[in-house]
Every structure is written in structure tokens, then in C-alpha cells.
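Could you show me some protein's one-letter sequence and the numbers that encode its backbone in two labelled lines?

___
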Amino acid sequence: MTGTVVVTGVGADTAIGTVTIGADEAVFTGHYPGFPVLPGVCLIEVVRSVLLTWLGEVGPLAGLDRSRFHRPVRPDEEITAAVSLVRGDNGLACTATVAVAGEKAADLRLRFRSGGAA
């Protein structure tokens, strides 16, 4: 999946990043014919990409503690991910709200292990 993540806002433990996934991306092929939708796992990757752009390094994904999908994300829509994180001895945890055009698309809670980039 391509698309350049731009981190537009950073606080002590928060960041906001945006990315647009083009209609030519392979992830849209067959998902779904006549009504292309970005798969939910790609929204998780968007959050991870925001973290990587912001922090420079993130350990491997250790868990998806919560996921709620509220609306489909279509090709060429600008995706905004607002991420808050908590650092711990075993890595970091984050909550993220993913939105498109001001509409909530997903709420996610993820955990990443310490120990290098994934």
C-alpha cells in the first residue's frame, strides 16, 4: 500500500497524520467489485504508519485490543488518524480515531512490542 503519511500535529503523546490511498492500489481489487472499500487491516496499517512517521521506529504489532469500524473508506479519500500513545516497559499502546471528511471511520486500540522496527 502506498501513499505518503504526513504528520500534521504533534503533542507530547499525540499525533495526527493524514494519507490518501489511491484508487489504483491493489488492495481495492476485488474488495468489493463495483464498490471498492479499503480493508480494515489497512486502517491499522495507516495508524502504524503515522506512528512510524512520528516516532521513527515502532516494534512489531503485539495485539489489536479493540476495533470498531463505523464507515467504509473509499479510494482517493483523505484519511486522518488521531493517535494517542502510552509507553510501557513492554512497548507501547495506542488508541486511534480514524476519520474521513470529519466522519469517524474507525476506533482502534493497538499494542506494539519493544525491540526494533517491524
